[in-house]
Amino acid sequence: MEKILIKSFTSGPIRVHPYVVIDREAKVGCVIDPGGDSDLILDEFVKADARLLYIFNTHYHPDHVAHNGIIKDIVPSVQIAIGVDDAKLLETDFSNFAKHHDYPIIAGKADVLINDGQIFEIGNIGIKCISVPGHTPGSVCFYSPELKSVFTGDTLFQGLIGRIDLHTSIPEKMFDSLMKLIDLPDDTQILPGHGRNSIMGNEKAMIRQMHTDFTFAQNKMV
Ligand SMILES: [Fe+2]
Predict the structure, then answer these.
(1) Does any domain span residue 222?
(2) Rounded distance from Cα 216 to ligand 1 centre (Å)
(3) What is the CATH number of the domain that holds 125?
(4) Residue 152 domain flag
(5) Is residue 153 included in any domain, yes or no?
(6) Centroid of ligand 1 to alpha carbon of 61 (angstroms)
């Protein structure tokens, strides 16, 4: 059996990917973006006899945080961690989204406010937080050298980037944020909030091109 478990799910009406990460030796773990399937997520911790330390949210959107509160009710010691600039937004009234999709959203409240460069330790797994404002003001990517993976939420997908036309998006910051991911090794797995996985080596040219195009367009603006 592998020492480290990474398991992904596809959950909820927007088909978001929650990820469970467990250090089986240290018997501790975390979940990234529990947008649904809290029962299946918690099952993984029971099976591994591991303690759930953190819920990491890549950003505050309801499809990514829907089961934060359900998990916190069952595991009160778990810490909900989200980018400092999304923490207040986590308390948004999501009832319209919930009604529209007939899907309960219990986002809970932030326990830990994440700043750029902050590092969390989950047993022997390091999770480095990269602040990537753009899709939302407090979006964060979570990079782990031990896992050779980066959890990108709605900032970077296979072959495309996240939406920057939403009401709390900051489009002018998105392209500089994406450039912060350029230095990650080419073989880093991209584990996005939706859709298929990729690797950094396959996405760097797109990121550089978009950054160049955006800078060019900005300079042409009068
Ligand atoms: Fe989103």
Answers:
(1) no
(2) 26
(3) 3.60.15.10
(4) yes
(5) yes
(6) 5
- Which domain does 37 fall in, by range? 4-217
Gap from CA of 10 to ligand 1 centroid (Å): 15
For 199, list phi and psi in degrees, rounded to 5.
Answer: -130, 150
Give the number of domains in the chain.
1
Asked if 100 and 12 count as a contact pair (C-beta separation under 8 A), the reply is no
With respect to residue 173, please indicate whether it lies within any of the assigned structural domains: yes
At 215, which amino acid appears?
A: T
44-47's contacts with Cβ under 8 Å and 24+ in sequence apart are 44/5, 44/7, 44/20, 45/20
Cα–Cα distance, 104 to 94 (Å, whole number): 9
pLDDT tens, N- to C-terminus, the chain (222 residues): 899 999 999 999 999 999 999 999 999 999 999 999 999 999 999 999 999 999 999 999 999 999 999 999 999 999 999 999 999 999 999 999 999 999 999 999 999 999 999 999 999 999 999 999 999 999 999 999 999 999 999 999 999 999 999 999 999 999 999 999 999 999 999 999 999 999 999 999 999 999 999 888 888 865
**How is residue 20 annotated by DSSP?**
E
120 Cα: distance to centroid of ligand 1 (angstroms): 23
Distance in Å, CA 193 to ligand 1 centroid:
8
